[in-house]
Amino acid sequence: MGYDAFVRCNCYELGKTKPFKYSQFIKTYPECLYLELPDVLPKTVKESKEKIKELYNEWYCSNPCEHEDMDFCNEWIANVSGMGWLKSCIYWLGGEKEFPALGTQLPDYNDGFMPIKFNNQFRDDLKRFIEKKLTTYYLETKDCNWYIEGNAGNEIDELLCKNDDIELHSYKGKIRIEKNKNVIFEANKFSVEKINDNKYIYAAENNKIEIPIFHMPHIFDKQKKLNFYFEEQNWNMKDEFKFKYNTFIKLLDASDKTGNPICWC
Ligand SMILES: [Zn+2]
Q1: Residue 166 pLDDT > 80, yes or no?
Q2: CA 50 to ligand 1 center in whole angstroms
Q3: How far is the CA of 51 from the centre of ligand 1 (A)?
Q4: What's the CA-to-centroid distance between 18 and ligand 1, angstroms?
Q5: Which residues 6+ apart lie within 8 Å of 126 measured at CB?
Q6: What is the pLDDT of residues 118-135, one digit of tens each?
Q7: pLDDT confidence of 237, banded at 50, 70, 90?
Q8: Cα–Cα dist 201/217, whole Å
């Protein structure tokens, strides 16, 4: 399973396909041509519906234009994790606010299409996106080799969990604990000791507090005390997504040229 995309050619609209006897019944859609027969055929049509369907299938399968399957462009984009990684980076770099089309128009499923009114914005978004660099911070613990979910991007202040007036945040490579909106603990390297289900001791160089929450309590199943640290990772979008960038540009060019939208499949 993965993500592909194609742009249908416009040979039919341009009259560049082999002639089809019953072209009055061909309807054009963004993704394909479709034979749509009325309930009752006009009297001038002498052949049966079945026969017309058969003729249409023959015509369609005979490569009626220069493009295989009438695709002007057909490209593999990404596997599932590749698409997930791309979407995460877009989100961390500002999401739809920064990239109005790129942040909203990528496919969630293997169908549908991007209306062509988004083409220019999508191209513009891509060009800015590919020039970006991103720093991410992963909260990690060596003791049980566990990444904590909610990998915080550079500018995302992420609420990991809360309990009444206490909130646990991850932001710019630090864990931050607030009580009634006042910061009571902040560190990028710290230990957490579980005393019981409602008591954890957070300790850093110059700070030690006792609070009732931790983001993922089950990681204390085997050990009662763990050391955590934020690991910084730097990413260059050009290195990460050059192939996808080129693929999207190819698809956009095809869409602009044919007037047909990029279809996901
Ligand atoms: Zn064609």
Answers
A1: yes
A2: 26
A3: 25
A4: 10
A5: 102, 245, 248, 249
A6: 999 999 999 999 999 998
A7: very high
A8: 13
Instruction: Name 161's bridge partners.
Output: 168
Q: Report pLDDT for 86.
A: 96
Q: What's the confidence (pLDDT) of residue 172?
A: 82
d(CA 192, CA 127): 43
Residues facing 235 on adjacent strands: 134
For position 241, what pLDDT does the model report?
A: 97
Contacts of 43 (CB under 8 A, 6+ apart): none
Task: State the distance from the centre of ligand 1 to the C-alpha of 73, rounded, in angstroms.
Answer: 10
For ligand 1, the distance from its centroid to the CA atom of residue 67, given in whole angstroms, is: 4
Q: Which sequence spans correspond to the domains of the chain?
A: 7-71, 76-133+236-264, 135-234
Answer yes or no: pTM beyond 0.90: no
Q: Which two tokens stand for residue 261?
A: 């939208």
Distance 30 CA to ligand 1 centre (A): 14
Between strands 199-204 and 189-196, the pairing is antiparallel
The CA 207 to ligand 1 mean position distance, Å, reads: 69
What average pLDDT does range 222-238 have in this prediction?
A: 90
